[in-house]
Write a structure and sequence with these properties.
This protein is mainly alpha-helical and 308 residues long. The protein has two domains: 7-109, Tyrosine recombinase, N-terminal domain (DNA polymerase, domain 1); 118-288, hpI Integrase, Chain A. The protein is 56% helix and 4% strand. A hairpin with a 4-residue loop joins strand 1 (172-173) and strand 2. Helix 1 (7-20) packs antiparallel against helix 2 (26-45) and helix 2 (26-45) crosses helix 4.
């Protein structure tokens, strides 16, 4: 069915549905009418007049319009009203291809790590590289190259620490510079590998990992005893590299992943593409995760939308 259902029609039908089918009070209906009128005004200003034009990016844009002096509970009520209206419209008009808006729960957000600057992350990468001196025992050189490989996987691919330590050698496609990653809930995604990162991974696999293997292991990153790299050690490796680079605030693997995402977006990468690379189920998570300002969202919207 055609998706060009005007918002004003959808809102009117939704309010009528609340009154006739749900038996909502006049007070409730008035509250919904006020909330939805506010959203309709914003959408009209942006040149969006029908349900078929609605996208998750627009949902993000709408959410950013709500803030103080509104209380968090009031904001959530307004967003819930809008979502209910869209859900009603999709079902009532049998619309195809219209995604329901997802909104982040403002008060439940966990504090995010601060993204490192390009200079800082370069320092972390450089200080994770092995210092090949005659004084270093060979095992230390092998371990140092492993540490460098870990940092490159986190920043070059934006992996979660769990994905990095669970990464298997068979998942690395050197010829095509791709890595197959198994993320949360067993979902698999394929990530392109930057040339520099692939070079570091190749060197580690060829020169260092064979010397760390004690018994057959499918995992890429190994401890100096040949076991799968432990999560706590991965954290320590990242923190040590940060300190060596002169970054005094404690940073873990999540900060490196966060930096990967922010740098991609600031470099002009599409929000949807970054969502796929990070393995996020919801684009809302990507927006929150990267603390991306809405100027970037607006810019991407204008580029993508024919009326932009």
């Amino acid at each position: 069915m055609e998706t060009k259902i005007r918002f004003e029609i959808a809102i009117a039908d939704f309010l009528e549905h609340l009154e006739d089918q749900k038996g909502a009070s006049h007070h409730t209906i008035d509250a919904y009418r006020g909330d939805l009128a506010m959203f309709q005004t914003l959408l009209d200003e942006w040149g969006i007049d029908n349900i078929g034009q609605f996208t998750p990016e627009i949902a993000l844009k709408l959410q950013t319009q709500l803030g103080p002096p509104l209380r968090p509970r009031t904001i959530q009520r307004k967003l819930s009203a809008f979502r209910s209206m869209v859900k009603f419209a999709v079902k009532n008009y049998r619309l195809q291809g219209v995604e329901l808006p997802e909104f982040a729960a403002g008060q439940r957000q966990r504090p995010l790590p601060k993204a490192l600057t390009a200079r800082e992350i370069e320092g972390v990468v450089n200080h994770s590289q092995p210092k090949l001196t005659p004084q270093n025992p060979k095992i230390e050189q092998y371990v140092a190259k492993r540490n460098h490989c870990l940092i490159e996987l986190l920043y070059g691919l934006g992996l979660r620490v769990s994905e990095a330590i669970e990464l298997r050698t068979e998942a690395i496609d050197i010829d095509n510079s791709m890595v197959r990653v198994t993320g949360k809930r067993g979902k698999t995604r394929v990530i392109p590998v930057p040339q520099q990162t692939m070079q570091v991974v190749q060197e580690y696999l060829k020169e260092s990992r064979p010397n760390l293997v004690v018994r057959a292991s499918p995992f890429v990153l190994l401890s100096n005893r040949g076991a799968k790299l432990h999560r706590s050690l991965a954290y320590q490796i990242v923190r040590d590299a940060c300190v060596a680079a002169g970054i005094l605030d404690p940073h873990g693997p999540h900060a490196i992943r966060h930096t990967y995402a922010v740098h991609l977006l600031k470099g002009g990468a599409d929000l949807r593409a970054v969502q796929e690379l990070l393995g996020h189920e919801s684009i809302i998570t990507t927006q929150i995760y990267t603390e991306m300002d809405m100027e970037t969202v607006k810019s991407n919207y204008k580029k993508a939308h024919p009326r932009g």
